[in-house]
Amino acid sequence: MILVEALSKNFGSVEALHSISFHVRKGEIIGLLGSNGAGKSTLLKILSTYLPPDAGRITIDGVDLLENPHDIRRRLGYLPEGAPLYPEMRVHEYLTYRAALKGVPARRIAEKMIDVMDLCSLRSVEKKLIGSLSKGYRQRVGLADALITEPPLLLFDEPTLGLDLTQQQQISHLLKGLAPRHTVLLSTHYMQEAIAICDRFLFLHDGKIVFFGTSKELQQVSPFPTPSEK
Amino acid sequence: MRSFWILWKREVAAYFRTPRATILLFFFLLLTGFNFCAGVNALNHGPTEISIVEAFFNTLFFWVAFLALIPLLTMHLFAEEYHLGTMETLVTAPVAEASIVLAKFFASLFLFLLLWAPTIFYFVLFWPSAHQIAAASYGAYAGAYGMLLLIGMLFLSLGCFASVLTPHQLIAGIISCSLMILFFFAGMLAFLHQHDSPIIHELAARFSLMEHMTNFSRGLIDTRPIVWYLSLTVFTLFLTISLFKNCRHKN
Fold this sequence. Notes:
The complex is a heterodimer. By secondary structure, chain A is α/β, with parallel strands linked by helices. Chain A folds into 2 domains: 2-75 and 151-229, Rossmann fold (3-Layer(aba) Sandwich); 85-150, no CATH class. Chain A has helices at residues 40-47, 69-74, 91-101, 106-119, 135-147, 165-176, 191-197, 215-221; strands spanning 2-11, 14-24, 29-33, 55-60, 63-64, 76-79, 153-157, 183-187, 200-205, 208-213. In chain A, a hairpin with a 2-residue loop joins strand 9 (200-205) and strand 10. In chain A, helix 3 crosses helix 4 (106-119). Chain A starts with a strand and ends in a 9-residue tail after the last helix. By secondary structure, chain B is mostly helical. Chain B has one domain. Helices cover 80% and strands 0% of the residues of chain B. Chain B has 13 helices and no strands. Chain B has helices at 2-17, 20-44, 52-56, 60-74, 79-84, 86-91, 97-116, 119-130, 138-165, 169-192, 198-207, 209-217, 223-247. In chain B, helix 4 packs across helix 9 (138-165), helix 9 runs parallel beside helix 13 and helix 10 packs across helix 11. The two termini of chain B are 27 Å apart. The A-B interface holds A 45, 48-52, 70, 73-74, 76, 78, 80, 82, 84-89, 97-98, 100-103, 145 and B 2-3, 6-7, 10, 14, 17-18, 84-86, 88-89, 91-96, 249.
Protein backbone atom coordinates (compact mmCIF):
# COMPACT_ATOMS: atom_id res chain seq x y z
CA MET A 1 0.00 0.00 0.00
CA ILE A 2 2.67 2.55 1.06
CA LEU A 3 6.30 2.21 0.08
CA VAL A 4 8.71 4.83 1.40
CA GLU A 5 12.32 4.71 0.21
CA ALA A 6 15.18 6.86 1.53
CA LEU A 7 12.90 9.77 2.40
CA SER A 8 14.61 12.92 3.68
CA LYS A 9 13.36 16.33 4.66
CA ASN A 10 15.26 19.30 6.04
CA PHE A 11 14.04 22.62 7.40
CA GLY A 12 17.08 24.81 6.98
CA SER A 13 19.79 23.20 9.07
CA VAL A 14 17.31 20.99 10.96
CA GLU A 15 17.08 17.47 9.64
CA ALA A 16 13.40 16.52 10.16
CA LEU A 17 13.63 13.14 8.38
CA HIS A 18 16.87 11.34 7.60
CA SER A 19 16.69 8.81 4.78
CA ILE A 20 13.86 6.70 6.22
CA SER A 21 12.41 3.65 4.45
CA PHE A 22 9.45 1.47 5.37
CA HIS A 23 6.59 -0.49 3.87
CA VAL A 24 2.96 -0.56 5.03
CA ARG A 25 0.60 -3.34 3.95
CA LYS A 26 -3.01 -2.79 2.93
CA GLY A 27 -5.49 -2.68 5.84
CA GLU A 28 -2.85 -2.15 8.53
CA ILE A 29 -3.07 0.44 11.27
CA ILE A 30 0.36 1.89 11.91
CA GLY A 31 1.11 3.95 15.01
CA LEU A 32 3.67 6.72 14.55
CA LEU A 33 5.35 7.31 17.88
CA GLY A 34 8.15 9.49 19.11
CA SER A 35 8.90 12.58 21.12
CA ASN A 36 8.13 16.12 19.98
CA GLY A 37 10.18 17.03 16.93
CA ALA A 38 10.86 13.37 16.07
CA GLY A 39 9.42 13.87 12.55
CA LYS A 40 5.95 12.29 12.89
CA SER A 41 3.97 15.29 11.64
CA THR A 42 6.53 15.99 8.90
CA LEU A 43 6.15 12.42 7.64
CA LEU A 44 2.34 12.73 7.58
CA LYS A 45 2.53 16.13 5.85
CA ILE A 46 4.74 14.62 3.15
CA LEU A 47 2.47 11.58 2.71
CA SER A 48 -0.55 13.89 2.46
CA THR A 49 1.26 15.78 -0.40
CA TYR A 50 1.26 19.01 1.63
CA LEU A 51 5.05 19.13 1.98
CA PRO A 52 7.45 18.13 -0.78
CA PRO A 53 10.28 15.80 0.31
CA ASP A 54 13.91 16.82 -0.30
CA ALA A 55 14.93 13.32 -1.36
CA GLY A 56 13.50 9.83 -1.62
CA ARG A 57 10.59 8.11 -3.25
CA ILE A 58 7.04 7.38 -2.07
CA THR A 59 4.52 5.17 -3.84
CA ILE A 60 0.96 4.69 -2.64
CA ASP A 61 -1.01 1.90 -4.30
CA GLY A 62 1.72 1.85 -6.95
CA VAL A 63 1.27 5.56 -7.75
CA ASP A 64 4.32 7.79 -7.37
CA LEU A 65 3.53 10.62 -4.96
CA LEU A 66 5.80 13.19 -6.56
CA GLU A 67 4.71 12.45 -10.12
CA ASN A 68 0.96 12.20 -9.46
CA PRO A 69 0.07 14.15 -6.29
CA HIS A 70 -3.46 14.75 -7.60
CA ASP A 71 -4.08 10.98 -7.91
CA ILE A 72 -2.74 10.44 -4.39
CA ARG A 73 -5.09 13.12 -2.99
CA ARG A 74 -8.05 11.16 -4.34
CA ARG A 75 -6.90 8.12 -2.34
CA LEU A 76 -6.38 9.72 1.04
CA GLY A 77 -8.20 11.28 3.95
CA TYR A 78 -6.08 13.54 6.15
CA LEU A 79 -6.70 14.98 9.59
CA PRO A 80 -3.92 17.46 10.44
CA GLU A 81 -2.95 18.17 14.04
CA GLY A 82 -5.56 20.29 15.85
CA ALA A 83 -8.30 19.48 13.28
CA PRO A 84 -8.26 22.83 11.44
CA LEU A 85 -11.79 23.82 10.37
CA TYR A 86 -13.73 26.94 9.34
CA PRO A 87 -15.36 28.19 12.58
CA GLU A 88 -18.03 30.24 10.77
CA MET A 89 -19.50 27.18 9.00
CA ARG A 90 -22.08 24.77 10.36
CA VAL A 91 -21.13 21.10 10.63
CA HIS A 92 -23.42 19.92 7.82
CA GLU A 93 -22.37 22.85 5.58
CA TYR A 94 -18.71 22.04 6.11
CA LEU A 95 -19.09 18.33 5.40
CA THR A 96 -21.24 19.01 2.31
CA TYR A 97 -18.60 21.42 1.03
CA ARG A 98 -15.75 18.99 1.68
CA ALA A 99 -17.60 16.06 0.09
CA ALA A 100 -18.31 18.13 -3.04
CA LEU A 101 -14.70 19.37 -3.17
CA LYS A 102 -13.41 15.80 -2.96
CA GLY A 103 -15.52 14.82 -5.93
CA VAL A 104 -18.51 13.06 -4.34
CA PRO A 105 -21.37 13.33 -6.89
CA ALA A 106 -24.12 15.77 -5.75
CA ARG A 107 -26.78 13.04 -5.65
CA ARG A 108 -24.67 10.94 -3.23
CA ILE A 109 -23.59 13.68 -0.82
CA ALA A 110 -26.68 13.42 1.45
CA GLU A 111 -26.26 9.65 1.79
CA LYS A 112 -22.52 9.97 2.53
CA MET A 113 -23.22 12.71 5.07
CA ILE A 114 -25.65 10.50 7.00
CA ASP A 115 -23.19 7.60 7.01
CA VAL A 116 -20.23 9.63 8.18
CA MET A 117 -22.20 11.64 10.78
CA ASP A 118 -23.57 8.40 12.24
CA LEU A 119 -20.08 6.90 12.28
CA CYS A 120 -18.62 9.91 14.07
CA SER A 121 -21.69 10.60 16.26
CA LEU A 122 -22.26 14.07 14.85
CA ARG A 123 -26.02 14.00 14.22
CA SER A 124 -26.80 15.95 17.41
CA VAL A 125 -24.54 18.87 16.37
CA GLU A 126 -24.97 18.89 12.60
CA LYS A 127 -26.66 22.34 12.59
CA LYS A 128 -24.24 23.91 15.07
CA LEU A 129 -21.50 26.37 14.17
CA ILE A 130 -18.11 24.66 14.19
CA GLY A 131 -16.70 27.55 16.23
CA SER A 132 -19.13 26.77 19.06
CA LEU A 133 -18.23 23.05 19.28
CA SER A 134 -16.07 21.45 21.97
CA LYS A 135 -12.60 20.22 21.01
CA GLY A 136 -13.84 16.63 20.98
CA TYR A 137 -16.59 17.40 18.50
CA ARG A 138 -14.24 19.43 16.32
CA GLN A 139 -11.92 16.39 16.16
CA ARG A 140 -14.92 14.29 15.12
CA VAL A 141 -15.79 16.77 12.36
CA GLY A 142 -12.18 16.53 11.16
CA LEU A 143 -12.41 12.72 11.24
CA ALA A 144 -15.73 12.82 9.37
CA ASP A 145 -14.10 15.01 6.72
CA ALA A 146 -11.25 12.52 6.31
CA LEU A 147 -13.69 9.60 6.09
CA ILE A 148 -16.38 11.09 3.86
CA THR A 149 -15.05 9.67 0.60
CA GLU A 150 -14.09 6.34 2.23
CA PRO A 151 -10.50 6.67 0.98
CA PRO A 152 -8.21 3.62 1.11
CA LEU A 153 -5.52 5.57 3.03
CA LEU A 154 -6.16 7.60 6.18
CA LEU A 155 -3.60 9.86 7.86
CA PHE A 156 -4.38 11.10 11.36
CA ASP A 157 -2.09 13.50 13.19
CA GLU A 158 -2.73 13.37 16.94
CA PRO A 159 -6.50 12.77 16.64
CA THR A 160 -7.00 12.44 20.41
CA LEU A 161 -4.64 15.16 21.63
CA GLY A 162 -6.22 17.31 24.34
CA LEU A 163 -9.37 15.19 24.67
CA ASP A 164 -10.69 13.81 27.95
CA LEU A 165 -10.48 10.08 28.65
CA THR A 166 -14.04 9.29 27.51
CA GLN A 167 -13.58 11.19 24.24
CA GLN A 168 -10.21 9.49 23.71
CA GLN A 169 -11.79 6.07 24.16
CA GLN A 170 -14.66 6.90 21.79
CA ILE A 171 -12.29 8.07 19.06
CA SER A 172 -9.94 5.10 19.65
CA HIS A 173 -12.91 2.77 19.25
CA LEU A 174 -13.88 4.53 16.02
CA LEU A 175 -10.32 4.30 14.65
CA LYS A 176 -10.00 0.62 15.52
CA GLY A 177 -13.12 -0.12 13.48
CA LEU A 178 -11.53 1.36 10.32
CA ALA A 179 -9.32 -1.67 9.58
CA PRO A 180 -9.24 -3.66 7.34
CA ARG A 181 -11.21 -1.44 4.93
CA HIS A 182 -8.70 1.38 5.32
CA THR A 183 -4.96 1.59 5.78
CA VAL A 184 -4.31 4.01 8.64
CA LEU A 185 -1.23 5.94 9.73
CA LEU A 186 -1.85 7.40 13.15
CA SER A 187 0.49 9.77 14.93
CA THR A 188 0.08 9.78 18.70
CA HIS A 189 1.85 10.51 21.95
CA TYR A 190 -0.20 7.95 23.86
CA MET A 191 1.48 4.52 23.93
CA GLN A 192 -1.56 2.89 25.52
CA GLU A 193 -3.80 4.20 22.77
CA ALA A 194 -1.38 3.00 20.09
CA ILE A 195 -1.23 -0.49 21.57
CA ALA A 196 -5.03 -0.66 21.73
CA ILE A 197 -5.50 0.42 18.10
CA CYS A 198 -2.41 -0.28 16.01
CA ASP A 199 -1.09 -3.44 14.33
CA ARG A 200 2.48 -2.16 14.10
CA PHE A 201 4.45 0.77 15.51
CA LEU A 202 6.94 3.05 13.87
CA PHE A 203 9.14 4.84 16.39
CA LEU A 204 10.90 7.94 15.16
CA HIS A 205 13.72 9.74 16.94
CA ASP A 206 15.52 12.77 15.48
CA GLY A 207 14.13 11.96 12.04
CA LYS A 208 15.31 8.35 12.03
CA ILE A 209 13.36 5.10 12.46
CA VAL A 210 14.47 3.45 15.70
CA PHE A 211 11.87 0.68 15.69
CA PHE A 212 9.26 -0.65 13.29
CA GLY A 213 7.32 -3.75 14.26
CA THR A 214 4.51 -5.32 16.26
CA SER A 215 3.90 -4.98 19.99
CA LYS A 216 5.38 -8.48 20.47
CA GLU A 217 8.57 -7.43 18.72
CA LEU A 218 8.55 -4.27 20.80
CA GLN A 219 8.53 -6.31 24.02
CA GLN A 220 11.66 -8.13 22.86
CA VAL A 221 13.63 -4.93 22.36
CA SER A 222 12.18 -2.89 25.23
CA PRO A 223 13.24 -3.53 28.85
CA PHE A 224 9.91 -2.07 30.03
CA PRO A 225 6.58 -3.96 29.98
CA THR A 226 3.96 -2.57 27.61
CA PRO A 227 0.82 -1.17 29.34
CA SER A 228 -1.19 -4.27 28.36
CA GLU A 229 1.21 -6.46 30.36
CA LYS A 230 0.98 -4.43 33.55
CA MET B 1 -14.29 23.60 -13.26
CA ARG B 2 -16.60 21.95 -10.70
CA SER B 3 -14.08 22.44 -7.90
CA PHE B 4 -13.68 26.10 -8.93
CA TRP B 5 -17.42 26.74 -8.42
CA ILE B 6 -17.48 24.84 -5.11
CA LEU B 7 -14.55 26.92 -3.83
CA TRP B 8 -15.99 30.16 -5.24
CA LYS B 9 -19.33 29.60 -3.50
CA ARG B 10 -17.62 28.91 -0.17
CA GLU B 11 -15.46 32.02 -0.50
CA VAL B 12 -18.43 34.25 -1.33
CA ALA B 13 -20.50 32.73 1.50
CA ALA B 14 -17.57 33.27 3.90
CA TYR B 15 -17.88 37.06 3.41
CA PHE B 16 -21.52 36.89 4.52
CA ARG B 17 -21.13 34.31 7.30
CA THR B 18 -19.23 36.93 9.28
CA PRO B 19 -20.24 40.62 9.63
CA ARG B 20 -17.38 41.49 7.23
CA ALA B 21 -19.56 42.09 4.14
CA THR B 22 -22.29 44.00 6.03
CA ILE B 23 -19.84 46.31 7.81
CA LEU B 24 -17.94 46.89 4.56
CA LEU B 25 -21.14 47.67 2.67
CA PHE B 26 -22.30 50.11 5.35
CA PHE B 27 -19.09 52.15 5.52
CA PHE B 28 -18.46 51.91 1.80
CA LEU B 29 -21.91 53.28 0.92
CA LEU B 30 -21.46 56.00 3.53
CA LEU B 31 -18.18 57.08 1.93
CA THR B 32 -19.36 56.85 -1.69
CA GLY B 33 -22.64 58.61 -0.76
CA PHE B 34 -20.64 61.43 0.80
CA ASN B 35 -18.45 61.50 -2.32
CA PHE B 36 -21.54 61.81 -4.53
CA CYS B 37 -22.90 64.69 -2.42
CA ALA B 38 -19.50 66.41 -2.60
CA GLY B 39 -19.59 66.03 -6.40
CA VAL B 40 -23.10 67.55 -6.59
CA ASN B 41 -22.04 70.45 -4.34
CA ALA B 42 -19.00 71.13 -6.52
CA LEU B 43 -21.20 71.28 -9.62
CA ASN B 44 -23.59 73.67 -7.86
CA HIS B 45 -20.89 76.33 -7.55
CA GLY B 46 -21.30 77.47 -11.15
CA PRO B 47 -21.32 76.46 -14.81
CA THR B 48 -18.89 73.63 -15.57
CA GLU B 49 -18.06 71.24 -18.40
CA ILE B 50 -17.68 68.15 -16.23
CA SER B 51 -20.58 65.78 -15.57
CA ILE B 52 -21.53 64.30 -12.22
CA VAL B 53 -20.20 60.90 -13.44
CA GLU B 54 -16.79 62.45 -14.10
CA ALA B 55 -16.90 64.33 -10.80
CA PHE B 56 -17.85 61.19 -8.84
CA PHE B 57 -15.06 59.00 -10.24
CA ASN B 58 -12.26 61.54 -9.91
CA THR B 59 -12.38 62.87 -6.38
CA LEU B 60 -10.06 62.17 -3.47
CA PHE B 61 -12.91 60.41 -1.61
CA PHE B 62 -13.42 58.07 -4.55
CA TRP B 63 -9.76 57.01 -4.56
CA VAL B 64 -9.67 56.69 -0.76
CA ALA B 65 -12.75 54.42 -0.87
CA PHE B 66 -11.29 52.47 -3.77
CA LEU B 67 -7.82 51.98 -2.27
CA ALA B 68 -9.15 51.17 1.22
CA LEU B 69 -11.61 48.60 -0.08
CA ILE B 70 -9.14 46.30 -1.86
CA PRO B 71 -7.04 45.18 1.18
CA LEU B 72 -10.22 44.69 3.21
CA LEU B 73 -11.52 42.34 0.52
CA THR B 74 -8.32 40.39 -0.07
CA MET B 75 -6.02 40.36 2.95
CA HIS B 76 -7.77 37.38 4.60
CA LEU B 77 -8.04 35.22 1.46
CA PHE B 78 -4.92 33.10 1.96
CA ALA B 79 -3.56 34.54 5.21
CA GLU B 80 -6.58 33.31 7.17
CA GLU B 81 -6.25 29.80 5.73
CA TYR B 82 -2.60 29.71 6.84
CA HIS B 83 -3.54 31.09 10.25
CA LEU B 84 -6.40 28.62 10.85
CA GLY B 85 -4.40 25.70 9.45
CA THR B 86 -7.16 24.96 6.92
CA MET B 87 -4.62 25.41 4.10
CA GLU B 88 -3.46 21.85 4.82
CA THR B 89 -6.90 20.32 4.33
CA LEU B 90 -7.59 22.60 1.36
CA VAL B 91 -4.52 21.75 -0.70
CA THR B 92 -4.53 18.05 0.19
CA ALA B 93 -8.01 17.75 -1.35
CA PRO B 94 -7.96 16.78 -5.05
CA VAL B 95 -8.08 20.38 -6.28
CA ALA B 96 -5.68 22.21 -8.59
CA GLU B 97 -3.80 25.12 -7.02
CA ALA B 98 -4.92 27.34 -9.91
CA SER B 99 -8.58 26.65 -9.02
CA ILE B 100 -7.96 27.73 -5.42
CA VAL B 101 -6.30 31.02 -6.44
CA LEU B 102 -8.85 31.82 -9.16
CA ALA B 103 -11.83 30.97 -6.92
CA LYS B 104 -10.54 33.34 -4.24
CA PHE B 105 -9.80 36.07 -6.79
CA PHE B 106 -13.22 35.86 -8.46
CA ALA B 107 -15.00 35.70 -5.09
CA SER B 108 -13.32 38.97 -4.08
CA LEU B 109 -14.17 40.44 -7.49
CA PHE B 110 -17.81 39.43 -7.02
CA LEU B 111 -17.96 41.22 -3.68
CA PHE B 112 -16.14 44.22 -5.14
CA LEU B 113 -18.80 44.52 -7.87
CA LEU B 114 -21.57 43.94 -5.33
CA LEU B 115 -20.28 46.86 -3.25
CA TRP B 116 -20.06 49.20 -6.23
CA ALA B 117 -23.41 48.16 -7.75
CA PRO B 118 -25.58 50.40 -5.49
CA THR B 119 -23.66 53.48 -6.69
CA ILE B 120 -25.48 53.13 -10.06
CA PHE B 121 -28.63 54.21 -8.23
CA TYR B 122 -26.97 57.51 -7.28
CA PHE B 123 -26.96 58.44 -10.97
CA VAL B 124 -30.46 57.03 -11.55
CA LEU B 125 -31.78 59.19 -8.68
CA PHE B 126 -29.81 62.21 -9.87
CA TRP B 127 -32.02 62.69 -12.94
CA PRO B 128 -35.44 63.17 -11.20
CA SER B 129 -33.96 65.19 -8.32
CA ALA B 130 -31.68 67.54 -10.32
CA HIS B 131 -33.78 67.55 -13.50
CA GLN B 132 -30.74 66.87 -15.62
CA ILE B 133 -28.99 63.76 -16.85
CA ALA B 134 -25.85 62.59 -15.01
CA ALA B 135 -23.72 62.20 -18.15
CA ALA B 136 -23.99 63.19 -21.80
CA SER B 137 -23.82 59.62 -23.09
CA TYR B 138 -24.07 56.02 -22.00
CA GLY B 139 -20.40 55.72 -22.97
CA ALA B 140 -19.48 57.74 -19.89
CA TYR B 141 -21.24 55.22 -17.61
CA ALA B 142 -19.77 52.26 -19.50
CA GLY B 143 -16.31 53.87 -19.49
CA ALA B 144 -16.34 54.78 -15.80
CA TYR B 145 -17.65 51.43 -14.56
CA GLY B 146 -15.51 49.55 -17.10
CA MET B 147 -12.36 51.29 -15.83
CA LEU B 148 -13.50 50.63 -12.26
CA LEU B 149 -13.69 46.93 -13.11
CA LEU B 150 -10.28 46.91 -14.83
CA ILE B 151 -8.41 48.72 -12.03
CA GLY B 152 -10.37 46.67 -9.49
CA MET B 153 -9.26 43.41 -11.14
CA LEU B 154 -5.62 44.49 -11.14
CA PHE B 155 -5.66 45.63 -7.52
CA LEU B 156 -7.57 42.55 -6.33
CA SER B 157 -4.99 40.34 -8.02
CA LEU B 158 -2.26 42.32 -6.19
CA GLY B 159 -4.22 41.77 -2.96
CA CYS B 160 -4.33 38.01 -3.61
CA PHE B 161 -0.60 38.03 -4.31
CA ALA B 162 0.07 39.83 -1.00
CA SER B 163 -2.15 37.41 0.92
CA VAL B 164 -0.25 34.36 -0.41
CA LEU B 165 2.98 35.77 1.00
CA THR B 166 2.13 35.73 4.71
CA PRO B 167 -0.05 34.10 7.37
CA HIS B 168 -0.70 37.54 8.93
CA GLN B 169 -3.71 39.41 7.54
CA LEU B 170 -2.41 42.79 8.66
CA ILE B 171 0.93 42.30 6.91
CA ALA B 172 -0.90 41.11 3.77
CA GLY B 173 -3.03 44.27 3.94
CA ILE B 174 0.05 46.49 4.33
CA ILE B 175 1.80 44.79 1.38
CA SER B 176 -1.22 45.15 -0.91
CA CYS B 177 -1.67 48.81 0.18
CA SER B 178 1.99 49.51 -0.59
CA LEU B 179 1.73 47.92 -4.06
CA MET B 180 -1.42 49.89 -4.88
CA ILE B 181 0.03 53.16 -3.63
CA LEU B 182 3.11 52.51 -5.78
CA PHE B 183 0.86 52.18 -8.84
CA PHE B 184 -1.18 55.19 -7.84
CA PHE B 185 1.74 57.53 -7.25
CA ALA B 186 3.66 56.34 -10.32
CA GLY B 187 0.76 57.76 -12.32
CA MET B 188 0.76 60.94 -10.22
CA LEU B 189 4.18 61.79 -11.71
CA ALA B 190 2.23 62.83 -14.81
CA PHE B 191 0.73 65.72 -12.82
CA LEU B 192 3.88 66.60 -10.89
CA HIS B 193 6.05 66.87 -14.05
CA GLN B 194 3.39 68.47 -16.20
CA HIS B 195 5.57 71.45 -17.14
CA ASP B 196 9.22 70.76 -16.29
CA SER B 197 9.70 67.31 -17.87
CA PRO B 198 7.46 66.48 -20.83
CA ILE B 199 8.97 62.97 -21.31
CA ILE B 200 8.26 61.89 -17.73
CA HIS B 201 4.83 63.50 -18.00
CA GLU B 202 4.08 61.61 -21.23
CA LEU B 203 5.34 58.28 -19.86
CA ALA B 204 3.59 58.58 -16.49
CA ALA B 205 0.34 59.67 -18.14
CA ARG B 206 0.24 56.40 -20.06
CA PHE B 207 0.15 54.47 -16.76
CA SER B 208 -1.80 56.98 -14.67
CA LEU B 209 -4.88 55.51 -13.00
CA MET B 210 -6.37 58.99 -12.59
CA GLU B 211 -5.74 59.88 -16.21
CA HIS B 212 -7.37 56.65 -17.39
CA MET B 213 -10.35 57.13 -15.10
CA THR B 214 -10.79 60.76 -16.19
CA ASN B 215 -10.78 59.81 -19.88
CA PHE B 216 -13.04 56.79 -19.50
CA SER B 217 -15.56 58.65 -17.33
CA ARG B 218 -15.83 61.20 -20.16
CA GLY B 219 -16.72 58.32 -22.46
CA LEU B 220 -13.31 58.40 -24.20
CA ILE B 221 -12.66 54.68 -24.39
CA ASP B 222 -9.18 53.64 -25.47
CA THR B 223 -8.17 49.99 -25.95
CA ARG B 224 -4.57 50.46 -24.74
CA PRO B 225 -5.39 50.86 -21.02
CA ILE B 226 -7.81 47.91 -21.33
CA VAL B 227 -5.04 45.66 -22.66
CA TRP B 228 -2.60 47.07 -20.06
CA TYR B 229 -4.82 46.33 -17.05
CA LEU B 230 -5.96 42.92 -18.33
CA SER B 231 -2.37 41.84 -19.09
CA LEU B 232 -1.13 42.98 -15.69
CA THR B 233 -4.01 41.19 -13.95
CA VAL B 234 -3.32 37.92 -15.79
CA PHE B 235 0.42 38.27 -15.07
CA THR B 236 -0.17 38.92 -11.36
CA LEU B 237 -2.55 35.97 -11.10
CA PHE B 238 -0.03 33.75 -12.88
CA LEU B 239 2.64 34.91 -10.43
CA THR B 240 0.28 34.27 -7.51
CA ILE B 241 -0.49 30.72 -8.69
CA SER B 242 3.24 29.94 -9.15
CA LEU B 243 4.08 31.37 -5.74
CA PHE B 244 1.21 29.47 -4.12
CA LYS B 245 2.31 26.19 -5.72
CA ASN B 246 5.91 26.54 -4.60
CA CYS B 247 5.83 28.45 -1.33
CA ARG B 248 2.47 27.71 0.34
CA HIS B 249 3.98 25.18 2.75
CA LYS B 250 6.56 27.71 3.97
CA ASN B 251 3.83 29.69 5.73
